Structure formats: C-alpha cells, structure tokens
Write the structure tokens for this entry.
Amino acid sequence: MKKHIRAALGHPRLLHLFDRLMFTIGPATSQPSTFSLLIAPPGAGNIGDQAMVEAFLENTPGNVRIICHGQQDICIPDQHAERTRVIVLPGLIYGHLLPHLRSIGVFRRLLGRAQMVAITGADIMDGAYNWQASTNRANIAWLAAQANIPVRILGFSWNGRAHPQALAALKRATAAGVQLCLRDPLSAERARADGLANVTEVADIVFAARTVNFATASQLLYSLPSQCNYALVNASGLIGRSSVQIEGYVRIIRELQHHGLQVILLPHVSRPGGDDLPVCREICEALGDSTVLMIERLLSPAEIRGLTAGATLTVTGRMHLAIMSLYSGVPAITLATQGKVEGMMRLFGAEFLAIEPRPDFAERIVALIQQVLARPDDLRQHLHSKLPAVRTLARRNFDAAQPEPARQEELSCAYD
C-alpha cells in the first residue's frame, strides 16, 4: 500500500497539476535578469555528465546557476567558481509531492532573475531510463516557457521509442516555445517523426569543450615505455558483468596487444547501478597481465581529453568517452545502447564504429580493430576532416535561435 501511495504522490501528472497551481498564485517576483540557469544531469560519478556541465560553462558567459539533485553531483572547476553557484533542489526532478513543492517554489523564484533556462538533455529525455524524470524535465521546461523565458534542451538523443508520457510532455513544451537541440541527425529524424516541433540539429555539447589537460596524461603514462602507442579500453557497468562480456574484452585486449598497442583500462562511470570500475577490474584480473595499465579513479573531462588525444584507438561502452576520443580525431569503437550512438557516428560518416552489444560483439570488434589498424592514418584523416563541421554544430547548442544551416553533404559521406 505504501509503495502505491508513494508512486501516486510522485506521478508526473500530479506534480504538474500542482506546479501549474503554484505558478498561477500571483506572479513571481520579477527582477533584472542576472544569470543563466542550467538544470544539470544526474552526475554523481559520471564523467560524461560532468563534461556536459563544463562544456556549458565554457560556452556561456556571465553568471550561472546550476540546479542539481545533490551537492556532490557536479564539481565546478576553479576557473568558473566565482561566477557559478550550485543550487540543490532534490525534489525538482525526482521528488514526490512535498519535496517537489518545496523545490518548485525555489525554482519559481529563480525564474524571476533568469535570462534563459537550459536543460541538459543527453539521453534522459525519451524515458528510456526513467520515464517519470524525463516527463518532469519536459514539464519544468514548459513552466519556464510559460514564464516567457527562453528555454532550450541541450544536445540530446531520441531513441524513437519514447515513453508516451515523456513524449506528450515534450510536445506540450515545444508548443510553448521550448527549443529542442537534437544531437545527431538520426535523433532529429526520430523526433520529427514523433511529431516534435522546434527541432534544431546540433552535435553533443562536449564537442564544444575548450579545455584539455595533458599534464595528467603525462603522469599516468610515465610508467609506460617511452613513445609507446596505446589503446584505451572501457567496459560499461551498465551493459553488465557477464562472463561473456569479460571473456570478450579479454579477447579484444589480446588483439590490441597483438598489434603492438599498450592497453589502458579506463573507467568512465562509477556509481550504483552502472559502475565501470568493478567490470574493468574483473577484466584486468582475467587477463593476469601486469603490462595492462588499470586506471583506478575517475578522471576529469579535461584529463580524459588529454589522454584520448594521444591514443591510437579507443574501445568503449560509454558514448561520452567515444565523443572525447573523436574530439581529437581518434577512432572510437563503441558499443551502441539506447539507439544513441549510431546517429553520432553518422556525423562522422563512420557508422561502422558503432557495434551492438550482442553475444558476438568481441568477434565483430576484433575484425574492426584489424580493419582500422590496417589503415589508421586514413581513418584519422577522415575523422579530422569532419571535426570542424561537428564543432560548429555543437556550438549551435548555445545559439539555438539562429536558422539551421543547409545540410552539408560531407556529413553523410561514409569512410571506406
């Protein structure tokens, strides 16, 4: 009974009803616009989420207020600390009725001074992970738009199988003027097919990041042979810790070593429900090879970009590690989940780098490693040729009001 009551009190329709009532009880105090307001992704041990927040800060001038679920979710880099304030509203997206009402009251007051509202969309808008949270984000966007504040949902993917309530809430938000920034052409196609309006095609905002830390990479690589070529390997805790995945990764790493590459195991997410660290450790133990370097902590996004910049190849179960490899033109063979990787690879004309995590994934990745390493310079040049257009698309997240540019044929050219 208690479970059913909690579910009823946290249902997005009920929360949205009370939100609308609160927003009609007299106007919120209106003051001069003084900051940009960002609703952050879950964070809390996810380098990709941290990277998106940092990319927003690096591309958004002036004062910024960031709404998080918890105080430890996001770390603000020192260079942005003076102009950035983190506001913890635990009930805004995930709360039940009473904590939600407390959070929505604070949010309403913040809107009185916000010059714009941005929501980090990532892969959390279509309801694939948590339909209630997806619906709540769309409803929050609608509320801000109703307050006549420009709202955009930054660079997100759309799987084409959205939860009905998440889709309905997002349709309502776009009808109120919310701008949708879809981070790949395939997601944009799916969104339009689902009847969503105000669709702007962009790239993931992390492609617009500006900081790279090479010092940490140098420290991590200090113990390796001088001038060695290396590959980065990540196993996603979200995909699972099955014996098939462990054995598959062992085979993949042996193939990389056969090509003379030093292998570095690199976790990208470490939090309950999807922790890469235990999986990477199990792979390391199964290898029983002291030459494999295991990174035992999560690096910052800038440190990751410093490490990926020198890699020959990346094999990953995490999309944002792939993005931060492609950021430097480094090929990233990526296990594709939730329909979010294929479209991103289309931006580079390299859809073949996306591999579905089926039982035969290792055989397919080994064959792809052989193909890529047979002509590594050709693929790197191809990826580098696409980067200027992708970075331009990424910057459109921060200027979404401009008309869309003409489609560039080069973005759809496949590598061969």
Remarks:
- The chain has 15 helices and 13 strands.
- Residues 214-374 form a domain with the Rossmann fold fold (CATH 3.40.50.2000).
